[in-house]
Amino acid sequence: MSILNLEQLNEMHIDVLKEIGNIGAGNAATSLSQMLNTEVDMTTPVVKILDISDAANLLGGPENVVIGILSKLGGDIEGIMMFIIEQDFAKTVLTSLLGVQEVSCDKLSDMELSAISELGNIMIAAYTGSIGTLSQMNLKTTVPAITVDMVGAILSVPAIEMGSVSDKIIFIEDDFLSGKKDVTANMLLVPSIDSLNRLMEKLGIAL
User: Fold this and answer.
1) pTM for the full model?
2) Does the keyword Zinc apply (predicted)?
3) How far, in Å, CA of 66 to CA of 10, rounded?
4) CATH number, domain at 100?
5) Sign of CA dihedral 8, 53, 186, 175
6) What is the rounded distance in angstroms from the CA atom of residue 121 to the CA atom of residue 118?
7) DSSP for 112-163, written as a single string
8) Structural domain count of the chain
9) In terms of residue numbers, what domain contains 130?
10) pLDDT tens track for 148-200
11) Would residue 207 count as lying in a domain?
């Protein structure tokens, strides 16, 4: 029997998503380390199935200004993936790459936006790579689109794009440790239900 929505995912399904999150975070830490030219460690990712409103609260509330980097998924898995960067993470990256000392998400220069966009591209590739590695499925992604806005406005995009599929999202929270700094990254995944069923079936997980 196929699942019809994200609410039907059981503990076994969540464990699979956690493993995808683990591999994705490992890939992301490696890529981030290379990008920043410094050692980056990670803690075990936290994977949750959330209402979009609950995700907004975890991201500092609907009015908190963040950077959202979105890519549409195609190939064997359709849906969207969005990487959310908060101010502390943006500052860590931009200080390391560009020597920037003061960072305000809503006042980024073109050069700073370009650097953050490249970061998002790398992070999204880390997670899609983890899905492909585990499932041997072929994933394609669009060129990521970057936007700076309040959390509520940014999360309206997956709500509109995938609202007919589900009002819930797969929320992956990662903590990365670089030197004495601990920064949190958040990856949001909203696959189509058909794609999620194909993924679980490919991994041999009973539906």
Assistant:
1) 0.85
2) no
3) 31
4) 3.40.1550.10
5) negative
6) 5
7) HHHHHHHHHHHHHHHHHHHHHHHH---EEEPPPEEEEEEHHHHHHHHHHHHT
8) 1
9) 6-202
10) 999 999 988 877 766 655 677 889 888 887 766 777 888 998 888 888 888 88
11) no
